[in-house]
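assembly run, all chains below
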Amino acid sequence: MFNLKILIPCLLFVACKQAPIIMSVKTGHEGEGMPKLSLLLMDKKSYYSTTSLPKGKTNVVFYFSPTCPYCRVQMRTIVSNMSEFKDIQFTAVTIANYEATKHFYERYNLSEFSNVVCGIDTGFVIPTYFQTNIVPLTAIYDKSGALQQVFSGGIGIKQLKEVLRLRTVLARN
Amino acid sequence: MNLKILIIVSLCTGILIFLYYKRKYLTRENFGWLIAILYASLMLITAGEKFRDFIKVREQLSLMPLIEPVSDLLAWALPLTEIILAVLVFLPLTRKIGLYLVTALMVVFTGYVVYLIKYAPHLPCTCGGFMEQLSWPQHLVFNSIFILLGVVGLFLIRLDSRKPKEVDYHLG
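ok done. output:
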């Protein structure tokens, strides 16, 4: 019994931890439409233009690096909660090389989701447009196609759900 | 950095003063318990943190060299093994085998740390808890201390099991 008394305080060192809530950053592009992007798709041949994205849908631009653990965490949380994000269009954008992006694409089975477009921003449009090198970057465009919020750094699933839910409600009103 | 050293030095001094006044508790058995509790806490804390931040650990492991192909399996297996080892080390009955296994695991970890220092020093670690704050060389020192503790613990167990031979005088 005496030994248990010692062990229990030791166990208390295991502190509670939650994904931190991060504030959105001001980019100066709020209210604007999405910049024109040509994304090199994973078949290494075709390009996808963001002008052909479906209209009237909330669009999340997820700027990532395939070798960044926080981007991977965010992609994993999005993919594993995809049933709740069916009405949302995800555009996963990177400036990394083809092999690394392909590996990332296959790891999260992104080809299985019709609402996810993953491609390489060969023109470095996103980092230039938002003037950032920070990954992951999550930009949220509402149903009318206007930029609402940009989050710099890993964003937890709870916060993402909250933000997207709020956007949907606002767009309905 | 200076504050860290100050805290460590004052803690060590405090422990030494405490031990000086409580000399009677400095027995072999208590030292064995101390090692067992230290190891069990270390294993439980790291396993708990790994489970708490499971997605992060899984994705970080998938970026580590050498273990990348089995990273998804390891993300589950590692904390589970740590919990089992914590129980094995803590129970007096299974302490010997537990200490053998846990020291072996620590040696494997340390070998991997050495590999990382040599080939991929820029990668972060996935230990969980306060251990994540340690740099790779600090990790090496931390692990070495624990390996040393494990070896000392095994040595103490061996000393305990060596009982004096019983002499049967009736046969003589």
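Chain A touches chain B through 16 residues (CB under 8 Å).

The CA atoms of residues 80 and 93 of chain A lie 19 Å apart.

not gonna interpret more than that til we talk
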